[in-house]
Specification:
Elements: E1 8-9, E2 13-17, H1 23-31, H2 49-61, E3 65-72, E4 78-88, E5 93-101, H3 110-125, E6 130-136, H4 140-149, E7 152-162, E8 168-177, H5 181-194
Parallel strand pairs: 5-6
Antiparallel strand pairs: 1-2, 2-3, 3-4, 4-5, 6-8, 7-8
Helix pairs in contact: 3-5
Length: about 200
Amino acid sequence: MAFTPLTLTGSRVVLEPLAHRHYQGLINAVRDGELWNLWYTSIPSPEGMAEEIDRRLARQAEGEMLPFTTLDARTGEVLGMTTFCDIDRATPRVEIGYTWNRLSTQRTGTNAESKLLLLTHAFETEGCASVTFTTHWHNLQSREAIARLGARQDGVLRAHSRMADGTLRDTVVFSITAPEWPAVASGLRHRLDRAR
């Protein structure tokens, strides 16, 4: 199980290893919808983007995270960020998280294809036994999106972590296991084909 930087390419999106050259594109993307103002999630503000890039790259250097910049496959426009995180090489398993996309591309199939690319790599290249997703209890949009992928809700971790504003987050945990992956993949591909 390697989880080393690589580029994953689909028909809608390209996932490139996060780099400082994506800085301005990420600022433009996060301004589309002022996503940092959502209280139930942690999305960097334009002023905090450089620090967030540095944080993710430092965690990559420590082997804890593999961050990507999401690009539009046709135009090259930066859409957002996503990562492999909480990498457990012994099991093996991984979490897909710290994901956000510009507001104008939400519900266009770009997120579904990003997840298809990441899940395919996790299960078919890295040999993961499971892939996990977590989100805030109050982030209904994220919970619904994760469920639409085909992930099953495992449970809720009450008072699991503290948010930047000091409130406690109840974390909803979802997962997909290796035996479930073929059906999930088929469902995602069918969904993307219908959206073309």
